[in-house]
Amino acid sequence: MGSKIMRFCAYIRPTLVKTDPATMVAATQALGHAARVGGTLMADFVEREISTALEWLETDHNEHRRHTAVLMLKELAANAPTLFNAHVPEFLRKMWGALRDPKLAIREAAVEALSACLQLISRRDDSPQRQKSYDGIFSEVRQGLPSRPNHWYTEGPCQGPCPRSIAKKLTPPPSPAG
Asked: For 77, which of 33, 85, 116, 142 could close a Cys bridge (C-beta 3.0–4.6 Å)?
């Protein structure tokens, strides 16, 4: 069965960097499923895919590769958590570029990958590594927020119809008649 799964992965692998997002999603889901059912037979393959995806996140300017990388990391974090666990610190260092990518699809996929990683981290026992991961994420999030708060962050949810309350805040006060 192991050789059949490896052959299947070899057939799927070339579709990972296609320009069609639906194809990339389906291919990464199939490889994630293969990683789960292949178990220890797939360890070398999973390690290689994680390393490649992390490399693509850091160095590649090809948007299809970055998109594939975050899709693959999401699937491997969800389907091969034991193997992915060793790569969590590196993942957390390299993921922020994808979360700030100009392409919406890459940002959305990066959010899903981060979510899968956070689920993996939350299942750890209360280890210092877990707290260190949370502290690093918190620090990165704070760096990404504006340096000075404005009313969008401090006033809470809209009261009443949001468009009117927003318009009221943006409308300058009437000038004195004179």
From this structure: 116
Distance between CA atoms of residues 64 and 109, nearest Å: 12
pLDDT tens track for 157-170: 444 444 444 444 44
Please answer whether residues 141 and 95 qualify as being in contact, where contact means their C-beta atoms are separated by less than 8 angstroms: no
Task: Tell me the C-alpha distance between 107 and 124, whole Å.
Answer: 26
Cα distances (angstroms) measured from residue 130 to each of 84, 111, 117:
14, 19, 11
**pTM, whole model, 2 decimals?**
0.74
| pLDDT for position 2 | 66
